[in-house]
């Protein structure tokens, strides 16, 4: 995920929290070039990731049409993990709203909750792997098994990247005021929302097939 480096404020501050181009008022003319670049960089990354996951889902749908396709039993833990990721995304959106209000404490609380739930999601995915392995479903067991491990691993790697970005933003939020980290919080939350949507689509595809 692209990292966000926001420009330092100029002397005589007093710009409202909305100065970073996120929809607030005031100070719009003083916006520095790296801010829209960061947004554009993230959207380009999400576009590439969307193509990647779309190609993977297309291959999954095509491959399941072959006679050797044997569906896997979906671990019930995946439902719990889905709930964790849903609440993690909601917590990060709460941090975004707090940053727009200039509420530093709310930003830190939302980030802490979102990151913690995201980490639990990853641990839950690993536990789901162990559950399948205990039932005899390994990576090379068959095409359905291989696709399951590939899909969840690829999504998990993207979420690890989200945790790295989350860690950096959380560290900044501890030492800087909410207005200065607003853009970074917004972009981090956007990335996690994207991962939630991707997981919902992937999980739904696995359920119906």
From TrEMBL:
PROSITE patterns xrefs:
COX3
Per the UniProt entry, what are the Gene Ontology biological process annotations, in alphabetical order?
aerobic electron transport chain
An MF annotation (GO) of this entry: cytochrome-c oxidase activity
Signal peptide start and end residues: none
* Biased composition range(s): Basic and acidic residues: 1-18
Q: Looking at the UniProt record for this protein, which Gene Ontology cellular component terms does it annotate, in alphabetical order?
A: plasma membrane
Where does the Heme-copper oxidase subunit III family profile domain lie?
Answer: 39-209
Q: Tell whether Membrane is among the UniProt keywords.
A: yes
Domain of life, per the record? Bacteria
Q: Where is this region: Disordered?
A: 1-30
Q: State where composition is biased (Gly residues).
A: 19-30
Bilayer-crossing residues are 40-62, 77-96, 108-127, 147-169, 190-208
What membrane topology is annotated for this entry? Multi-pass membrane protein
**Ribosomal protein among the record's keywords?**
no
Q: Which Pfam families does this chain map to?
A: COX3
Query: Where is it localised?
Result: Cell membrane; Membrane
Entry keywords, A to Z: Membrane, Transmembrane, Transmembrane helix
Record family assignment: Belongs to the cytochrome c oxidase subunit 3 family.
Q: What is this protein called?
A: Cytochrome c oxidase subunit III
